Amino acid sequence: MDVAGATETKETKGARTRAAILERAVDLASVEGLEGLTIGRLAGELEMSKSGLFAHFGSKLDLQLATVDAAADRFRRIVIEPSLAAPDGGPRLRAMAEHYFEYLETFTGGCFWGATASEYDDRPGPVRDAIAAAMDLWIAELTRQASIAGVADPDRYAFELYAVVMGANSRFRLSGERRVFDLARAALARLEAELPA
Amino acid sequence: MDVAGATETKETKGARTRAAILERAVDLASVEGLEGLTIGRLAGELEMSKSGLFAHFGSKLDLQLATVDAAADRFRRIVIEPSLAAPDGGPRLRAMAEHYFEYLETFTGGCFWGATASEYDDRPGPVRDAIAAAMDLWIAELTRQASIAGVADPDRYAFELYAVVMGANSRFRLSGERRVFDLARAALARLEAELPA
DNA sequence: GGTTAGTACGAACGTTCGTGCTTTTTTATA
DNA sequence: TATAAAAAAGCACGAACGTTCGTACTAACC
Q1: Is 0.70 surpassed by the pTM of this model?
Q2: Which of A44, A140, B32, B61 could form a disulfide with B36 if both were Cys (CB 3.0 to 4.6 A apart)?
Q3: Is residue A44's beta carbon less than 7 angstroms from any atom in nucleic acid strand C?
Q4: What is the per-residue pLDDT for A14?
Q5: CB A19: neighbour CB atoms within 10 A?
Q6: Does the CB of A51 sit below 7 A from strand C?
């Protein structure tokens, strides 16, 4: 019995397989996108049959939606939760930015959200809605922390923070130069200097 | 005889058709990506046959490369050239950011570069190289102007400028809120305030 | 007037996609 | 251990993909 698991799914074989599929699906979608994410290729990499994998989801749309959920889980686990140790406001914001960079450097492909957000920004439907909802949540949290830190215009501050970290991801992936993280950190320092004492 | 056209292609029927194809291809790729850009769909929208269109390029790869070139042309025409009226340095930087926003708002789909850069950042090959080269040129120009304006660290300044305008594109496309342009302009004003008098 | 190049077409190719049905194998429980 | 349920595989399908091929029609040049 898991003490934390009120909504815990029973640890059956199927649930484990499903989780393994989604773990790989997030990685694959970070590289190929959620459209380029192919059931056949995913099955091949996991050494199982297309139809066997397919049965876990019933449709490609459901697989895509489940993949977005799994990606959000990973983001929470690697970026959000470790940042909760830092105090509210400025320190929390710095921790989130720093953990986001760690999150990026451990990925083989690019950031899932950077890849899929631009893939779906002109593609209406439930997948786009799920991505937009997840990113809105992330921006809202940045805004909330900026507000706690006491900045005059938390919306602008959060936007700028978001733009800098996502821009670092984008530039690094395309140029391969690790130096862009230094540029991004310099930009973040400038933002931090803006915070009231 | 075109006075500007040393490398001008002869205005044959085929050249005109090819240009029309590429014009549409840029729009389509801005929405569907360069992988999602399909010869059949492109031909359908232009009311011509797949094979007739295909003959203009010989391969999908060549079509993609030609589309990247056409997109770079459009960017130069709408963003770069109108900005040359402004004096070097700070004014030029402001003009480029402002023209980039106009460029975005006239598009039906998102920014071609925002869409394709993240699509190809983990997909090695000539298409990725072409996109990366075009974006490096854009960043280099921003850096050059920042240097002329006299900022201490032009690399960081250019990165931040790039991050803000691309971030505005990304957030606007996903949220649909025109307000993000105000946030971006506020961020740009903060950057401008940094310039030495 | 006959030849040649440029431009576009329709049909078909082999492949891959998502998905539906049926069967076999594995897992869990009584 | 027997048996029902769950999970995975096998197989086939229709559609769409990029690409190739043979063939018209048009315009220019000998």
Answers
A1: yes
A2: B32
A3: no
A4: 63
A5: 15
A6: yes
